[in-house]
Amino acid sequence: MSSRAPTPGTSRSRYMMTCMWNLQWWVLQRDAALLTGMPITDAYSTPLTCSSSRFRQASAMGALPLPRKPMIYFVTVHLEDEVHAGPLGFTKTVYLFTWGVDPAEAERHARAYCLGIGVRVRACSKPTLSQNQDMGRLTFPEQVYGAPRDLVERAIRSHDFGDTITNETLLTLTKKREIVRRGLEALATA
Questions:
Q1: Which tens digits make up the pLDDT trace of 101-146?
Q2: Would you call 77 exposed, middle or buried from its count of C-beta atoms within 10 A (0-12, 13-18, 19+)?
Q3: Longest dimension (CA), the chain
Q4: Domain residue limits at 27
Q5: Has this prediction a pTM greater than 0.70?
Q6: Domain count of the chain?
Q7: What are the pLDDT digits (tens) for 58-102?
Q8: What keywords appear on the UniProt entry (predicted)?
Q9: Are residues 35 and 126 in the same domain?
C-alpha cells in the first residue's frame, strides 16, 4: 500500500471520507448521550454507554477524550481507622458516589466528605464512572457527594415518597452538603 495521499474520487478516498463521517457521527452521538443520559449507539446498533468497558478502554488509549462534563463517579476510600458503615459493619474501606468533571475532582469530594465527618483517609482508588449517570434513577441521590443541590433536589422530588420522607431527605441533603463544604475548607487549608 502506498503512503501517498488518496486521489479524490478513488475508492480509498471515499472509504476514508466514510470513516471520517462515521467518526463525526459517533462523537455527536456520544456528546448527545452524555448530555441526556441516553445510551450511545454505534454503527452496529449495540448500546455503548460512557461507563461501558469499550468506552473506558478507548478513553484510556487516548482514542476518546474523557468527558469534561460533570459526572457521577464511584470511589473506593481506604481509611486510617476502622468505622462502622451500616450494612458493611466495622471496616476500613468505604464506597462513595461523588460528582466531578474528572476523577481528580471526584476523589477530592470523597476526601472532603470523609474529612468533614472526622475520618482520616489513607488512600482512594482511582474513581471510575458510575454505571448510572441519571440522578433521577438513583435511590439515594443525596449520597452523591459534591453534586449540585438543584439537580439532587429535583431527583429527590421526582420520587413520589410523600412530603414527610421528601422533607427528611432534603434535610439530610443539607447536612451532607455542609459536611462536604467543611471538608473542602479543611482540604484547602491543609
A1: 999 999 999 999 999 999 999 999 989 999 889 898 988 999 999 9
A2: buried
A3: 72
A4: 11-60
A5: no
A6: 2
A7: 555 555 555 568 899 999 999 999 999 888 889 999 999 999 999
A8: Plasmid
A9: no
Specify whether 106 is located in the same domain as 184: yes
pLDDT > 70: what percent of the chain? 64
Q: For residue 5, is it within any domain?
A: no
Beta strand 90-100 with 121-124 is unpaired
Q: Answer whether residue 42 shows pLDDT above 50.
A: no
Nine cell digits for residue 148: 449540585
